[in-house]
Amino acid sequence: MALQATCFSVVHNVAGKTNASLKDSTLFGVPLLDNRSNDITSLVSKNKMEFTRIKVFKAQAVATTSTPAVTRAAPKGKETLRKGCVVITGASSGLGLATAKALAESGKWHVIMACRDFLKAERAAKSSGISKENYTVMHLDLASLDSVRQFVANFKQSGRPLDVLVCNAAVYQPTAKEPTFTAEGIELSVGTNHLGHFLLSRLLLDDMKQSDYPSKRLIIVGSITGNTNTLAGNVPPKANLGDMRGLAGGLNGLNSSTMIDGGDFDGAKAYKDSKICNMLTMQEFHRRYHEETGITFASLYPGCIATTGLFREHIPLFRMLFPPFQKFITKGYVSEEESGKRLAQVVSDPSLTKSGVYWSWNKDSASFENQLSEEASDVSKARKVWEISEKLVGLA
Ligand code: NDP
Ligand code: PMR
């Protein structure tokens, strides 16, 4: 009954009639006691319209059937390709861990698990059965630019080649009433999810250039909720970078807002904004470096992995209802294992070498090139995010 009530209020909100932001008194982005819409028939038909739009939209994209993750066949008489070396941030749980497992099990990859909690990462690797010779845990706290620099120095010292970098880690603070900050005093979600990864990728680009691996890739995990051309992306609060006055102000909340667009702090919006930055950064990398380096730059939406630690700060009722809501109502749910296989494809599948692409998967788990929203594919915004970000992380 509670779930049913949720579904109806869902549609009500998606139709754009309320402006609720996600706080304690809301569930799935809508007020728990919202009873303004009681015409069930009209709600259901609106719901159908929304889903039809999604189907039409998906049908426009090109589907590619996934192929097994194999590296290029070695020419006769030559040695087989060496193991690839992939760095995955936030590999201690959820998508990152599942990807590490999928790649390690393929026997073709050595996974560097770049994690803020060393012990947690070691335990996670062990309990998911990743064999010792296939992974190394290295400390990385993306909420500290010093830690990012230290990680890069440690990695370089390790002497390992860098073939693929996966920027996966993220924090989501939907119920936070006040902002929290990184070591450098930057709002935590944008600081961790975007700026930490921005610095990491920039500092590791040279290592990737030097790798002799045949298919080098830089992958940044995006999301549907940062894309306002989808139903999910229209659930309030919506992602919006505005004129980026808050980002330009350093996001420290002292002389400027802690939000990229200069507005009042909203943890859910900060996460979605950070995901737009992730997707814009991937495209800007592509424009600046693909031709020169041959590196494939890609982003993806792995599906709704409703059971991961990402929702750890959400209210218990949300955490209870979100997985069945995604499984049975939106049908956007994907298991951690399946999402790991998807990201592993973006890392190593020979058919996913196209650069500048935002990958998604259809209901048969076939990958396709998806379209980003207008804002998430805005060339001038991408350049602006890049230029402001390089100042904030001390590269310009
Ligand atoms: P999890 O919370 O399970 O994983 C997030 C990982 O990020 C954890 O390993 C966490 O470490 C790590 N992390 C957080 N902060 C830092 C930091 N400061 N330094 C280093 N690592 C950090 O969530 P998911 O697996 O769901 O999320 C993975 C990615 O997938 C994210 O980019 C998310 O935006 C994206 N995504 C997720 C979706 C979903 O439905 N779950 C949908 C679309 C995209 P620790 O274990 O120590 O907490
Ligand atoms: Mg969403 C096709 C519909 C769809 C999909 C694929 C998602 C994915 N969501 C969909 C629909 C809806 N969601 C609708 C109709 C609602 C209103 C009831 C809704 C609500 C909702 C909330 C409150 N959804 C959420 C939240 C979150 O807190 C999650 C979030 O935004 O995190 C940033 C979330 C998500 N929905 C998704 C996905 C993938 C998420 C996790 C977000 C992410 O990592 O980007």
TrEMBL record:
Biological processes annotated in GO: chlorophyll biosynthetic process; photosynthesis
Compartmental location: Plastid, Chloroplast
InterPro entries: NAD(P)-bd_dom_sf, Prochl_reduct, SDR_fam
Catalytic activity as recorded in UniProt: chlorophyllide a + NADP(+) = protochlorophyllide a + NADPH + H(+)
GO cellular component, one term: chloroplast
Keyword Chloroplast part of the UniProt annotation: yes
Family as reported in the entry's similarity comment: Belongs to the short-chain dehydrogenases/reductases (SDR) family. POR subfamily.
Identification of the protein by name: NADPH-protochlorophyllide oxidoreductase
Species of provenance: Artemisia annua (Sweet wormwood)
